[in-house]
């Protein structure tokens, strides 16, 4: 189906007079998202194209305001910045007050059931607003929009939603808004395809200090529990020159830190017809005059020696690696489809530490995987201690429809799962506090992002190892700068200190 046909097929007339069964539209009018299609990884070349706004849409937002609520990971946070950029290019104004908005978007996350429940709660909350102001447009986008069951549920139970569009359709926002204004039917545009790479997307970035930079979209790993490969399409890298020119522009505009984004950044370049991988990209970025470079997330499977060398050698490469391990037990790792063992993970950690002795390692862990035994869980605890992780994001396994793990029988009760999470979290909290306590009396470099959440005479930012520091300083001229801070006190999750002096590593005048 070409783009015009897709557009024609994307409208569903769901006025209240209709029957509740919408499946009849799926055959001849509208193609629902389809997890099976989304799993296909064909050989077809990924289309790289440039975004531009059609003349006829210009000025569409004059006198109108947009509001976006974001759920989920950094990728969604950055997608929201892109949608804000598109709205701004259409002359919409931004509002942080949902009651003041003419267009409301919920940029959703599908990673766990509780993430989805939050979104359904919010759509429900917006029902009264739509009754009071029927002209308001309400849209659901992001990863949940790629799921057929979610789209069906919205069609059946949430008449207040006007637009549903997927993660591959963000660049189509002007067309989707136009269709929603022109008709009183719901506009649904979700492509269950492998995905394109769209360049030249406008962005309104949140802050002028740190910036997200997409390097690779999608994921081909298909870990057996995970919905992301279905919601984000196949792995597809941006061309190096596009990434490098974005980073150069950010550096020229005074940004102090970039974080390179991908569900699995280590797969960068594999899909391109050039001999260029993440190590090469990191080496090229280390030559750019931007003081701090981070990346997230990397799969232990393709963490190459060339990447380790680039991280160890690049002066602006930060000594922190987030390396999700998920479990410390070989059998569980195998069923998860992670394609590494406890031993090979430890081997990788050793190799990284040989080249970067001072590196801080953090991780993600899932407990209560189907049929996980007590011994298997204890292997995760022992691996945590053995590696000496400085922090972890920990989760109870949540079955995701359409994934292989969701079909597995599970003999672990919810109570046992919750108990394992609590026991793991005690270890995590203890080790996080211990890692922080080592900084007391030291002087560290902090990129000051602004004032602390609680007090506006206290400043806050992160160290090179991604530790949160709250500190006193004579005035707000520290904001946006890398400063030396003497650490006086360690808390469970943050450090307290006092400003010493500014370190300006950026050669560009700011
Ligand atoms: N691409 C990243 C992970 C992105 S999702 C990686 O592989 O490292 C972030 C984290 O959510 C995962 O690392 C995993 O710990 C957790 N997660 C993913 N699917 C989950 C599920 N079905 N239930 C519970 N946690 C899950
Ligand atoms: Fe999900 Fe695994 Fe891909 Fe990470 S690597 S996004 S956990 S499938
Ligand atoms: Fe959630 Fe999608 Fe990110 S499922 S974690 S928003 S890639």
Automatic annotation (TrEMBL):
MTTase N-terminal domain: residues covered: 64-182
Sample GO molecular function, one term: metal ion binding
The protein's enzyme class: transferase
Family annotation (CDD domains): Radical_SAM
Ligand binding ([4Fe-4S] cluster 2): 219, 223, 226
Family annotation (InterPro entries): Elp3/MiaA/NifB-like_rSAM, Methylthiotransferase, Methylthiotransferase_CS, Methylthiotransferase_N, Methylthiotransferase_N_sf, MiaB_methiolase, rSAM, rSAM_horseshoe
Chief location: cytoplasm
Residues that hold [4Fe-4S] cluster 1 according to the record: 73, 109, 143
SMART domains (UniProt xref): Elp3
EC number: 2.8.4.3
Keywords assigned by UniProt, alphabetized: 4Fe-4S, Cytoplasm, Iron, Iron-sulfur, Metal-binding, S-adenosyl-L-methionine, Transferase, tRNA processing
CC terms in the record's Gene Ontology section: cytosol
Family: Belongs to the methylthiotransferase family. MiaB subfamily.
SUBUNIT field: Monomer.
Protein name: tRNA-2-methylthio-N(6)-dimethylallyladenosine synthase
Species of the source: Aliicoccus persicus
Gene for this chain: miaB
């Amino acid at each position: 189906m070409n783009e015009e046909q897709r557009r024609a097929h994307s409208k569903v007339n769901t006025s209240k007079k209709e029957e509740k069964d919408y499946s009849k539209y799926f055959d001849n009018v509208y193609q629902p998202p389809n997890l099976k299609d989304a799993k296909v990884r064909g050989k077809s070349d990924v289309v790289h194209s440039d975004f531009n706004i059609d003349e006829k849409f210009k000025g569409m937002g004059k006198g109108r305001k947009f509001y976006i609520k974001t759920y989920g990971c950094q990728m969604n946070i950055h997608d929201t910045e892109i949608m804000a950029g598109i709205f701004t290019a259409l002359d919409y104004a931004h509002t942080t007050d949902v009651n003041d908005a003419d267009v409301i978007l919920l940029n959703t996350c599908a990673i766990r059931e509780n993430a989805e429940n939050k979104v359904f709660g919010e759509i429900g909350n917006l029902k009264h607003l739509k009754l009071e102001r029927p002209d308001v447009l309400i849209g659901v986008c992001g990863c949940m929009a790629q799921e057929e069951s979610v789209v069906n549920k919205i069609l059946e139970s949430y008449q207040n939603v006007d637009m549903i569009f997927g993660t591959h359709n963000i660049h189509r926002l002007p067309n989707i808004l136009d269709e929603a204004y022109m008709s009183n039917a719901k506009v649904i545009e979700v492509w269950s395809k492998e995905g394109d790479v769209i360049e030249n997307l406008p962005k309104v970035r949140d802050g002028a200090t740190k910036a997200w930079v997409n390097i690779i979209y999608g994921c081909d790993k298909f870990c057996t529990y995970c919905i992301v490969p279905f919601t984000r399409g196949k792995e597809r890298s941006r061309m190096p020159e596009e990434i490098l020119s974005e980073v150069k522009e950010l550096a020229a505009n005074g940004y102090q830190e970039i974080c390179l984004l991908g569900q699995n950044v280590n797969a960068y370049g594999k899909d391109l017809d050039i001999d260029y991988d993440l190590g090469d990209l990191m080496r090229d970025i280390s030559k750019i005059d931007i003081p701090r470079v981070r990346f997230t997330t990397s799969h232990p499977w393709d963490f190459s020696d060339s990447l380790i060398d680039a991280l160890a050698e690049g002066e602006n490469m930060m000594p922190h690696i987030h390396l999700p391990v998920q479990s410390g037990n070989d059998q569980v790792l195998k069923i998860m489809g992670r394609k590494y063992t406890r031993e090979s993970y430890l081997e990788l950690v050793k190799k990284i530490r040989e080249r970067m002795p001072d590196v801080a390692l953090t991780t993600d862990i899932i407990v209560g995987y189907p049929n996980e035994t007590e011994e298997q869980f204890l292997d995760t605890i022992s691996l945590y201690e053995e590696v000496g992780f400085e922090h972890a994001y920990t989760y109870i396994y949540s079955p995701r429809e359409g994934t292989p793990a969701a079909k597995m029988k599970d003999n672990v009760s919810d109570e046992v799962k919750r108990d394992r999470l609590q026991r793991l979290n005690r270890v995590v909290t203890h080790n996080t506090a211990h890692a922080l306590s080592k900084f007391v009396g030291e002087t560290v470099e902090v990129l000051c992002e602004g004032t602390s959440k609680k007090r506006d005479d206290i400043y806050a930012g992160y160290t090179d190892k991604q530790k949160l520091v709250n500190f006193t300083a004579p005035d707000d001229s520290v904001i946006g700068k890398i400063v030396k801070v003497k650490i006086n006190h360690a808390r469970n999750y943050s450090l307290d200190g006092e400003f010493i002096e500014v370190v300006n590593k950026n050669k560009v005048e700011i």
